[in-house]
Amino acid sequence: MTDIYDVIIAGAGPAGGQAARDLASRGYDVCVLETESEDEFPSRSNKSTAGTFPSTMASFNIPDEVVMNFTDDVVLESPNHHFRRHQPGAVLEFADFKNWLVDESRADGAEYRFGARVSKPVMEGGEIVGVQYNGGEEVRGDIVIDATGPSAPLAKELGVCELKREKQAIGIEFEFEGMDMNPDGYADLRDTMMLRLDHDIAPGGYSWIFHTGEDTAKVGVCYLQNEGHRKNAQTGFTIDDYLQYWADTDPRFENAKRIEGIQHRGSAHIQLPSRMSTDNFMAIGDTVPTVDPLWGEGIDKCMRSGRMAAATADRVLTHSERDTSASELAIYDKLWHDRVAPKAKNRLFMTEMLYRASNERYDEFMEDLHNISQNRLESANKGNPLAMLRLLKFEDISILLSTAKHWFSK
Description:
Strand content: 25-35%
Number of helices: 13
Distance between the termini: 47 Å
Shape: globular
Radius of gyration: 21 Å
Pfam families: FAD_binding_3
Order of helices and strands: EHEEHEEHEEEEHEEEEHHEEEHHHHHHH
Structural class: alpha/beta
Largest sheet: 8 strands, mixed
Protein name: NAD(P)/FAD-dependent oxidoreductase
InterPro entries: Dggglyphlred_Halo, FAD-bd, FAD/NAD-bd_sf, Geranylgeranyl_reductase
Number of strands: 16
Domain FAD-binding: 5-302
């Protein structure tokens, strides 16, 4: 077993798995270090939801075999109203999906070391040349990629990511059976992915129900530790309490029960990354996260960042005299901003504004959406400033100003 590789990847999630898949298919020697043991991978603690759209399925050739349920619509919900949009999608079985990525990259020669907890970079001459894991074990490579998510032990040590706790999002999800997906007075959620804006359930965030077939669904809550959360949080409530409160008060859960043993927890830092690469190093996936304001699309963003990192590595490793300096790997930063998260600053600003709005404004927003063209909504979601402004009303000026004040003060 060699300890010198072209590329070392820390983390075998969607971003790391996709980077390994692309690089191995191009013939590079790739080693992936994954904290979890192979017989437990992926563990139940891994975050899930795993809803995505046809563009992602096609772009990455994701097979139908890892899909729990194909959906027809996306529903946005507020405390008293909802908006339905025809948007075909797929709810993935997250464990099967991640194992598929491992199998795909292994088939092309990628090596996986499970039970390998990455602790810090191996440095020489002020540059990263490898990774230390499980205490004192080392592995070296021309390029190191951090795909460990919010823990980011390599990116933090190298000063690439400055992840702030105040921007951290935390989430919990269970899978339920016995759900009523079409009760009176609520949207029909059969073959649908639903996202709900409601501070009583998710102060400063959102909750969701993703139909996974028959009477089963993935149900979760996620919120940011932001101004919206501080203003609307219930004293003493944990994220588990909010999910339980929802299940106790929503008729869709009247006869539902949690499927034993299936629980997912996760976190992410929703903030603008200052940079994503340096000498011999790139950070991908939830180590440098980004989201769409309305649809989320976390899996797509992770996989695209993995693909852009692989393309960058391919470019700099192709030449006989390999140049993996910061100036060459900065190509990845450009690709990230162009193809992973274009207009990232605008979209993050829109996301923060959205989570500061009141429940009453969420109800109005659902009503407004019925009179907004899909093109304008999609343009706003992509960060077009004019389209974003056209979604606002006079009463939103205070939210706009408070969000702007917070941004400039930070």
